[in-house]
Design brief:
47% helix; three-stranded antiparallel β-sheet; 8 helices; 6% strand; single chain; mainly alpha; 212 residues
């Protein structure tokens, strides 16, 4: 259709047809995310006065892939941090960053205190290929990291946020063991790795209607 003839009902009809032909909710959410971006561009460029997709709600993704955790499972894992006594704040901060910021395990290991721009609300993360990016950090993750850094275990001479008992950066195996133990204490039987939190982070964002 011509841009001027696209309305909210057009968008509703389009996604209704996708649902009727059996398209999965995850695919529909991806299409909605793309359309929202496209319509935002058209509004910014003056082609439209308002996005026709502004009032359309993304379908709920009720079934999770085995590699994903539900919000309730994430919450139960975070709560187990309190059972680790001296390492409680450290473990909570790790999970909050893996999930709340979608960090890879290597990014968590290499994260430095000087990379934490909490006042601006970002982390400076070095990812694959030594490429740096700014990652938004939410209030829960921010508070968890601050609580840890102000604790005796977090006050080290190293710039790295997370260090082991020897004062050195954690290994991938070291982080994996902590995650595995927390998952077990939460009573979750499915296979969970540190990267599972990154998958869950992306799934929950899309489910909430975030742009792809």
């Amino acid at each position: 259709k011509e841009l001027s003839r696209i309305s909210g009902s057009t968008v509703t009809t389009y996604f209704g047809n996708l649902t009727r032909v059996g398209m999965k909710p995850t695919s529909i959410v991806r299409k909605l995310s793309s359309l929202r971006q496209f319509f935002t561009y058209l509004v910014d460029s003056g082609e439209l006065t308002e996005s026709p997709a502004v009032s359309y709600s993304a379908p709920k993704i009720s079934r999770y892939h085995p590699d994903y955790l539900s919000p309730r499972e994430i919450e139960s894992i975070i709560k187990t941090a309190d059972s680790f006594e001296q390492n409680a704040k450290r473990n909570r901060a790790m999970i909050e960053l893996l999930y709340g910021c979608g960090l890879r395990i290597s990014e968590l290991i290499d994260l430095k205190q000087t990379d934490c721009e909490f006042e601006a609300g970002f982390l400076r993360v070095t990812g694959k290929g030594e490429k740096q990016r700014l990652v938004p950090v939410g209030s829960f993750a921010k508070q968890a990291v601050l609580d840890y850094l102000q604790s005796p275990r977090g006050q080290t001479k190293q710039d790295s946020v997370f260090v082991n008992r020897s004062g050195k950066k954690f290994s991938r195996t070291g982080i994996w063991k902590i995650v595995k133990l927390m998952v077990r204490r939460a009573g979750i039987s499915k296979r969970v790795t540190p990267h599972t939190f990154r998958h869950s982070f992306a799934t929950h964002l899309l489910e909430g209607g975030a742009d792809l």
